[in-house]
Design brief:
This protein is mainly β. The protein folds into three domains: 166 residues, Protein Transport Mog1p, Chain A, CATH 3.40.1000; 78 residues; 109 residues. The chain has six helices and 26 strands. An eight-stranded antiparallel beta barrel has the order 17-20-21-22-23-24-25-26. The chain has a seven-stranded antiparallel beta sheet with strand order 2-3-4-8-7-6-5. A hairpin with a 4-residue loop joins β3 and β4.
């Protein structure tokens, strides 16, 4: 936890200060927000990080106002305070992360919030991470911690400070459009996402229209970004989706869903228009050639990967889920030994070889599919799409079980010559 280490060093510095510090000028929170603290306390800008440090006799408080928080994470109307706490902590800190069952309600009269109590044994620190709802519906962060020997009950000891952190105008939204809960705080122009909690109900197609092939279903519990909108022949709106989020395992070039089939969040009425892909006729398998005849060559895409060494670079996050559970985002570096490595690619009839493994080309496309089993028995499917002869994007879906429950995860990566 790099930032916690920085905070720990600052805390040691603070505890060594005399108790006669005079307060500096008013802490420069975003317009429309305020916090009060004892006159002998002091504050310091967090520098390259969002927010400020406020430090007193015992405790150090890291504060992020709603406007700065909205720059770090996206807060949607359907999010609970627990959702915001999990997202905010993940955005701010590395290392151990809170879980939903560890989150409690804030115990401060007159204020609503969610808290996570934590310990950092290596630095002998106890802390309380708070997501605090403002009177205008926005939310801010207070991370309160101290040396374990002096830490007691900050909810009681610092009640006045916690209560004072609020909006100065409760008319709504915050002066600079901070993120908030309850629907009215979503700023105009926020990206549009769709989601569903019903498995296998929202069909995903290769283009806008019921006449387009269905290739998958919208995954449950995942906020999928909408990247464009187009009309079908009947005048109905269809959303183009972020393929890596909606159907990373599909070889389809684009992924679409009919608007209205899933829940929407954000500014979905102002999604930019995009062009629908052409309708490709279904390929018909040619008859088997007569003995002695020369068969026609298989259909291929227009790109042939060049032979040589490619560098595979994993993306930062990996999505994983188990049957009956929601999606979990895991830092890829916590799963793999190397975030980048080299492979050798050779084009062959019907596909490519990557090392000893054969990847078959999807007929008429620049996409390739392969499957292999790791030494521990874990099975993986790999999907590659080349956008040039020396560059591809891809995903690797790996399957595993936890206590008998089937699970899967998806790495995404780039591969370049």
């Amino acid at each position: 936890m790099l930032r916690k280490l920085v905070f720990a060093l600052l805390l040691l510095f603070v505890l060594a200060l005399p108790l006669t510090l005079a307060a500096q000028s008013e802490i420069p929170l975003a317009e429309g927000y305020t916090i009060d603290f004892p006159s002998r306390w002091d504050w310091e800008d967090a520098g390259e990080y969002a927010g400020f440090y406020i430090y007193g006799d015992v405790y150090l408080i890291y504060i992020v106002d709603p406007v700065e928080l909205s720059d770090l994470i996206t807060i949607r109307s359907k999010d609970t305070l627990e959702d915001v706490l999990l997202d905010a902590y993940y955005a701010l800190y590395e290392g151990d992360q809170p879980t939903a069952r560890e989150i409690e309600e804030l115990n401060v009269p007159g204020r609503t919030g969610a808290v996570w109590r934590y310990s950092i044994a290596a630095d002998d620190i106890e802390g309380l991470f708070i997501v605090l709802e403002m009177s205008d519906g926005t939310v801010g962060i207070l991370d309160i911690y101290a040396d374990a020997s002096n830490y007691d009950d900050p909810e009681q000891e610092l009640e006045d400070v916690i209560v004072s952190f609020d909006a100065t105008d409760a008319s709504g939204g915050g002066a600079d459009g901070g993120g908030g809960l309850g629907g009215s705080q979503e700023p105009a122009g926020e990206s549009c996402t769709v989601s569903t909690d019903q498995a296998r109900t929202v069909a995903l197609r290769v283009g806008p229209g019921e006449n387009r092939s269905s290739v998958a279903f919208l995954p449950t519990g995942v906020d999928v970004e909408v990247t464009g909108v187009a009309l079908d022949n009947d005048g109905d709106e269809w959303f183009q989706l972020n393929k890596d989020q909606a159907a990373p395992q599909s070889a389809a070039a684009e992924i679409w869903m009919r608007r209205g089939d899933a829940d929407e969040s954000g500014d979905c009425d102002n999604v930019g228009e995009t062009s629908a892909p052409p309708i490709n006729p279904i390929a018909v398998q040619p008859p088997t050639a007569a003995p002695g005849a020369t068969a026609a060559p298989p259909a291929t895409g227009s790109i042939t990967p060049v032979t040589g060494t490619y560098t595979v670079s994993y993306n930062a996050n990996t999505n994983a889920s188990c049957r009956g559970g929601g999606n979990v985002v895991i830092p890829t570096v916590e799963i793999v030994d190397d975030m980048a490595f080299n492979v050798y690619v050779v084009p062959v009839t019907g596909g490519i070889n990557i090392g000893p493994d054969f990847f078959v080309r999807t007929s008429g496309t620049n996409s390739f599919i392969g499957s292999f089993t790791w030494d521990d028995g874990t099975n993986s499917q790999v999907y590659l799409t080349f956008s040039s002869s020396s560059f591809a994007t891809g995903s690797e879906v790996f399957n595993f079980t936890i206590n008998g429950t089937p699970c899967s995860g998806t790495f995404t990566f780039n591969m370049s010559r």
